[in-house]
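User: structure tokens for this one?
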Amino acid sequence: LLATMAPAGTGTVETTRAAFTKCLRGHLKKSLQAKMSEAEYEVSLKGACDTEREAFRAAVTTANTSSGYSAADAADNAEMQIEDYHASFTDKFADFSSSNTLPADDS
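Assistant:
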């Protein structure tokens, strides 16, 4: 029974993850074009993509609680994943900024 339920939750997580990372990529590109400093980018990232971030957080939390996590552990795991994306995009910003390049457009 759990095996048949997992893909539905995973699909929601994957869909919201894709929307969240697409939004983060757009924000990254706009921030590079605006010639933000890394510190400015880090601050702006916290407020970017609110709708997509909250949908992703909710999907991960729901999937985790469906898999047996406690509500607190499920929320902590979702927050950790969001923080990981923020750290990853901050690193990407630094790399692109130092090389004075922009990420490729999504196809």
